Amino acid sequence: MQKLQAQGVHHITLTGADRQTSIDFWEGVLGMPFIFDQPNLDNPDEGHLYFDPGDGRLITIFTNENRKAVHDRTPTDPGCVHHIAFNVSRATWMQVEDRLNARGITHSGPKDRGFMDSIYFKDPLGLLIELATYKFEPPLGCSHADVMIEAHRTRVARGDHHIAEVHLADAIERLVERRQMTLSDDRGPKNPY
Hints:
The chain is of the alpha/beta class. The protein contains 4 helices and 8 strands. The strands form 2 sheets. A 4-stranded mixed β-sheet has the order 1-4-3-2, with helices on one face. Strands 5-8-7-6 form a 4-stranded mixed β-sheet. A hairpin with a 6-residue loop joins β3 (47-51) and β4. The radius of gyration is 21 Å and the shape is elongated. It comes from Roseivivax jejudonensis. One of its GO terms (molecular function) is dioxygenase activity. Keywords: Dioxygenase, Oxidoreductase. Residues 8-134 form the VOC domain.
């Protein structure tokens, strides 16, 4: 038996309401370019809109002009989507709360998640959206996941409750030590003062 190895999210498709609500939210609020439009090939009564969330992958929305929002909050039963999180730059993150407030969009306020900062709000159909920004940049040649797994191992070894900045900093240092060679015989910390 062999795995079916995934290599990233190809796209996420959501059931939307009407076309204009979808465009106004995904492009007009979240800034995702509207890049492709065609009928839903499995349902002739629906449209299929495609948006680029910023990494070249896709968020797609099935639309129907007769469908309106029916939830204050989308279902969170087992098997349902709880929320979708999108990455934003630190510069954008610093503006998120003010920009949501300016639009009158109710939100959670900033949440410190140890390794990232987040804010939550609902789309017009009740889907919970998270905007998140990492508190770190991975070393050259490493991914955010590389740092996260190293920080997790450190947190568990120390018996800490959750990942914090100290775990991230130590993880980054270890990844650099493993990946980057040096001419020094001793890489240990020094005090030149």
